[in-house]
Amino acid sequence: MRLWLVTDPSIDAELILDTALRLDASYGSAIGIWFRDKRPDPDLALAKRLLGSMQHARFLAGSSAIGKAVGVTAVHEPTLLFPSTATACSAPAHSETEAEAAVAAGAQALMVSPLFKRKYDNDEAGVSLVTRVRTVVPNTHLYALGGVTADNAASCAAAGANGVAVLSEVW
């Protein structure tokens, strides 16, 4: 997988669905759809529509609660929350220490972030974080996240990322 399309509840549901369908049809299993809705009452109808519409792309629930509600076991969680029923788990990694802990807990993939300055705050670690995380977990899939754009995605790959997770640039 080379690209994760990350959803956001502030984006129109029909735009999310249309974009996901286009990516699924064009790039198939090279695309992942990460349903990310951190609200206490997430839009499970949209999650179910996304999951039911994908022919090729992979679907990753933003939490085990969402995964259970829509019937998938691929989840993105902090390591202490990995459900025992999960068949695929990814986790956030904001440091080498977090990366090692996540992999030790069973994560097969890490979302390494934040790499670049985002519009809402000044958090940025730079692509060197990908290189440092790659050093401590050399056999884990790493996805660069946080301010990734068409202009800087190649630097993420050069630093050791297997792919990128994109939110704002797509929307």
Write a structural description.
This protein has helices at about 15-25, 45-55, 65-70, 95-105, 130-135, 155-160, and strands spanning about 5, 30-35, 60, 75, 90-95, 110, 140-145, 165. It has 6 helices and 8 strands, in the order E-H-E-H-E-H-E-E-H-E-H-E-H-E. It has about 170 residues and is α/β, with parallel strands linked by helices. It starts with a strand and ends in a 5-residue tail after the last strand. The model has no long low-confidence stretch (mean pLDDT about 85). It has an 8-stranded parallel beta sheet.
Salient structural properties:
34% helix, alpha/beta, 6 helices, 171 residues
The share of residues in extended strands comes to 15-25%
User: Which sheet architecture does the biggest sheet show?
Assistant: 8 strands, parallel
The radius of gyration computed from the alpha-carbon positions, rounded to a whole number of angstroms, is 15 Å
Mean pLDDT: 87
Secondary-structure content class: alpha/beta
End-to-end Cα distance: 20 Å
Strand order of the largest sheet: 3-2-1-8-7-6-5-4
Low-confidence stretches: none
Topology as a string of helices (H) and strands (E): EHEHEHEEHEHEHE
Quickly count the helices. Answer: 6
